[in-house]
Design a protein that fits this description.
- Helices cover 44% and strands 15% of the residues.
- A hairpin with a 2-residue loop joins strand 11 and strand 12.
- By secondary structure, the chain is of the alpha/beta class.
- The longest helix has 23 residues.
- Helix 2 crosses helix 7 and helix 7 packs across helix 8.
- Strands 1, 2, 3, 4, 5, 6, 11 and 12 form an 8-stranded mixed sheet that branches. Strands 8-9-7-10 form a 4-stranded parallel sheet, with helices on both faces.
- The structure holds adenosine-5'-diphosphate.
Length: 424
């Protein structure tokens, strides 16, 4: 029986819970044991140091017929999260047990079918996400490898952004070396070294930014876009009523997808994105000209969207406050800045952020079951509405190539790499 673990890493995004649910349920239904790793790579590095909390902690809260459907650790997880079906029905606070009902000291936890019930429509990630500095170090990754082998995990699904998948690719490429080191230091025996000589790892892209190359859509991006649209719709009504200008700053890190798509969906006048800065210098003139034209043809409101990573052709950041100053001073528009902040991260996933993680989560499990040492590790993507497997290393490299092209101020190349259909 294969043991499959899933973790969520980096910035949270809507649909991560649905991804975990899909991997857990697909794993169990295909005869595997399903595990979750709490707190992203940090949990992998910390592993399990405390013994399993006894089943009787849960027995106090659950009727026996329900109990049978949970694994030992899963019961503890439900008590600790306080979110699962068990606690909703039962009473009691896990912390009042003298032996402790929490998951303290346990990061790699087996879960049962019922543990992920109701997770499909919930935002964020229940199993926690973290940014792990330790996992960036060789010692951290060695500990992570050791913990995976100790817990007998032979398949790992990582759901995260480009950073997390870069980390996954790194773990994959270093794996044979890590196993040899663990063997040499006596942490694992010959049998384990042979059994775990090949790391089966699959990436799911969970990111609100839609910033991963070689896939059309990342888990969480549609929900973030939806939230941004709703916010701009609200701004639009007041802007039109008062004939005002609004500058809206949206998230996206180094990627302009959210800003660009929000601009299209909300009828913005001007959008600043990192991949394609304004064509002329200084950018102020170009923007003012466009907005003036829109006002002249009768538009009562002005919306300018500034992506988080926007900059001019010399890579100087373009910030919302600066844009506001220009609109106020040059065009004499009554201008306000709106920063949407963390509301953009999502909350309840829209339908697409349930469909995408579900279909991709199932394929992630299939990819693990079919993995052979001679094949590359995959990232599960979607292109032209088809779920497909893309070599993880290619996706990571191409994403880095986009960043490098922007850094080198080759903006046409950046757009072309991000979107091969892009036509200057
Ligand atoms: P995201 O996955 O949302 O892009 P980060 O870039 O913060 O978020 O990456 C999440 C985590 O992935 C980091 O905290 C780190 O543990 C791991 N990671 C990122 N890049 C690397 C890398 N080059 N090598 C090893 N681990 C990495």
């Amino acid at each position: 029986r294969m043991r499959i673990a899933v973790l969520t890493s980096g910035g949270d995004s809507a649909g991560m819970n649905a991804a975990v649910r899909a991997v857990v349920k697909a794993g169990i239904s295909k005869g595997c044991e399903s595990y979750v790793v709490r707190e992203g790579y940090e949990g992998l590095v910390r592993g399990n140091t405390a013994p399993l909390t006894p089943r009787r902690v849960a027995q106090r809260h659950l009727p026996p017929e329900r109990l049978a459907r949970f694994s030992n650790e899963a019961l503890v997880k439900n008590l600790s999260f306080g979110e699962g079906p068990a606690l909703k029905e039962g009473a009691g606070d896990a912390d009042d047990d003298e032996e402790g009902g929490t998951l303290k000291g346990r990061y790699i936890v087996q879960v049962g079918w019922d543990d992920v019930r109701g997770w499909m429509g919930e935002g964020g990630t229940f199993i926690g996400s973290a940014r792990s500095a330790t996992f960036r170090t060789p010692e951290g990754r060695l500990k992570a490898a050791h913990n995976l082998i100790k817990e007998g995990i032979d398949g790992l699904v990582v759901c995260g952004g480009d950073g997390s998948l870069t980390g996954a690719d790194r773990l994959r490429s270093e794996w044979p070396e890590l196993v040899q080191q663990l063997l040499a230091s006596g942490e694992i025996n010959e049998h384990q070294a042979a059994l775990y000589s090949h790391l089966k790892i699959v990436g799911l892209v969970g990111s609100i930014d839609n910033d991963m190359a070689l896939t059309d859509l990342t888990i969480g991006a549609p929900t973030a876009l939806q939230r941004i649209c709703e916010a701009i719709d609200n701004i639009n009504s007041t802007a039109a009523s008062h004939s005002r200008a609004f500058v809206v700053e949206v998230m996206g890190r180094h990627c302009g997808w959210l800003a660009l798509m929000a601009g299209v969906s909300a009828g913005a006048d001007y959008v600043f994105i990192p991949e394609q800065p304004p064509k002329s210098e200084p950018w102020e003139e170009e923007m003012c000209e466009v907005i003036k034209r829109h006002r002249e043809v009768g538009k009562r409101k002005t919306i300018v969207i500034v992506a988080e990573g926007a900059h001019d052709r010399d890579l100087n950041p373009i910030k919302a406050e600066k844009v506001k100053e220009v609109l106020s001073n040059v065009l004499k528009l009554d201008t306000r800045v709106t920063t949407l902040g963390h509301t953009q991260r999502g909350g309840r996933p829209v339908a697409m952020d349930r469909i995408l993680p579900t279909l991709q989560g199932i394929d992630a499990v299939n990819a693990l079951l079919e993995a052979t040492p001679s094949q590359p590790s995959y990232m599960i993507g979607i292109r032209e509405n088809k779920i497909l497997r893309i070599p993880l290393v290619d996706a990571v490299q191409q994403t880095q190539a986009v960043a490098a092209a922007i850094e080198a101020r080759d903006f046409a190349k950046a757009m072309g790499l991000r979107d091969p259909e892009f036509d200057q």
